[in-house]
């Protein structure tokens, strides 16, 4: 019996590919430390308004925000392989990195891809453009071999950035989307779907464990689930629409009082943001309940009151998921602490890393569902 258990564990370890992730300072944190955040937000609002008006063909991702991407990992592209640091993002589906031919200064503070040095590279003349909530990527579609650990996707479509704005201080080179094909640039296939097609993963599943405080310790796993990263059992939540990793939230409450989603609402489970986003009016109500006051573009509370603040409860598929003040309040000085709730022009909620550090998350494409369990 012991040998059977051991063989089972060995088979499990061979099926699951585990990628280490690193927790970094977000671009928002870097700009805040330099007292440049408010100026950046004003400049970006003006620039993005002009860009979207001048090019209606842009693929628009208004809620994708490079300001708040915190967890990064390494992939390689090309033959021989060139390493890039990317955000593994459940809120988008495209892969892109900067080209060596990129004309924007921000490209050359990051690793760039030289297609002339890859024997498996294939270029197209097709534009690849994405307008984010905090920036713009403008480039061209290409194909090459992409490796995530020992997973290999051959002839994988990806974007090469030739011009980009709003990515100057980000701690990553590019973005690797893990959402559904419907969000990808039309006619392309996301890397997870390509790996499924090629039979490279044993199960159409991936999962995230995001460590709470340490720089290291976070992981992304493909092809199965390592149960040592969570407590209890996984609670499965059906995806509300197979367009992205959207689920239905029954209600949001504080101190037993419903403060949002009274009749249910949609939420995106999103590894690509460190915050919790929601409709501006409802988020403002939460800020009042936790005694947060506006401070430029953000909301602050007095640090000594954290222990008195209530948890915010997200009830999902009949189960309460508590987010305590210690999780949604971030210390920026000895006196001022930052609220991690952010209002946006949206009817949806976005459950980012503040939520996902508390709950191990599994993304099951085979059954179109998300599993959540308390993280260890």
Automatic annotation (TrEMBL):
GO terms for molecular function: aspartic-type endopeptidase activity. GO terms for cellular component: extracellular region. SUPFAM superfamilies: Acid proteases (SSF50630). The active site is at 89, 270. Keywords: Aspartyl protease, Disulfide bond, Hydrolase, Protease, Secreted, Signal. Gene3D superfamilies: 6.10.140.60, Acid Proteases. Disulfide bonds join 102-107, 261-265, 303-337. Residues 1-15 form the signal peptide. The keyword Iron-sulfur does not apply. Its main location: secreted. One of its GO terms (biological process) is proteolysis. It is found in: Secreted, Extracellular space. PROSITE patterns: ASP_PROTEASE, PEPTIDASE_A1. Belongs to the peptidase A1 family. PANTHER family: BETA-SITE APP-CLEAVING ENZYME, ISOFORM A-RELATED (PTHR47966), PEPSIN A-5 (PTHR47966:SF49). This is Pregnancy-associated glycoprotein 6. It comes from Odocoileus virginianus (White-tailed deer).
């Amino acid at each position: 019996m012991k040998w059977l258990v051991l063989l089972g564990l060995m088979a499990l370890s061979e099926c699951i590919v585990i990628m280490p992730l690193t927790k970094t300072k977000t671009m928002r944190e870097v700009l805040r430390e330099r007292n440049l955040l408010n100026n950046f937000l004003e400049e970006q609002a003006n620039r993005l308004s002009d860009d979207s008006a001048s090019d209606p063909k842009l693929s628009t991702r208004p809620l994708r925000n490079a300001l708040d991407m915190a967890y990064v990992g390494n992939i390689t592209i090309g033959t021989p392989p060139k390493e890039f640091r990317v955000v593994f993002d459940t809120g988008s589906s495209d892969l892109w990195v900067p080209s060596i031919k990129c004309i924007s200064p921000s490209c050359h503070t990051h690793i760039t891809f030289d297609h002339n040095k890859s024997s498996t590279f294939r270029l197209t003349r097709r534009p690849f453009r994405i307008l984010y909530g905090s920036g713009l990527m403008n480039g061209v579609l290409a194909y090459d071999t992409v490796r995530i650990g020992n997973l290999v996707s051959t002839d994988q479509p990806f974007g090469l950035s030739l011009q980009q704005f709003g990515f100057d201080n980000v701690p990553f080179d590019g973005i690797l989307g893990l959402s559904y094909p419907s969000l990808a640039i039309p006619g392309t296939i996301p890397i997870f779907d390509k790996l499924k097609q090629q039979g490279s993963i044993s199960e159409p599943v991936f999962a995230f464990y995001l460590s709470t405080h340490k720089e290291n310790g976070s992981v992304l796993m493909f092809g199965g689930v390592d149960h040592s990263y969570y407590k209890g059992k996984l609670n499965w939540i059906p995806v509300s629409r197979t367009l992205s990793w959207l689920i239905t939230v029954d209600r949001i409450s504080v101190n037993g009082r419903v403060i949002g989603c009274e009749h249910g609402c949609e939420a995106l489970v999103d590894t690509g943001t460190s915050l919790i986003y929601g409709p501006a009016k409802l988020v403002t109500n939460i800020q009042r309940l936790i005694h947060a006051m506006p401070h430029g573009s953000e909301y602050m509370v007095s640090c000594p009151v954290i222990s008195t603040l209530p948890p915010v409860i997200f009830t999902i598929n009949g189960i309460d998921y508590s987010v305590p003040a210690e999780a949604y309040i971030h210390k920026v000085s000895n006196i001022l602490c930052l609220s991690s709730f952010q209002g946006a022009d949206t009817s949806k909620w976005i459950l980012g890393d503040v939520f996902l550090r508390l709950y191990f998350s599994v993304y099951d494409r085979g059954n179109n569902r998300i599993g959540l369990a308390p993280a260890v």
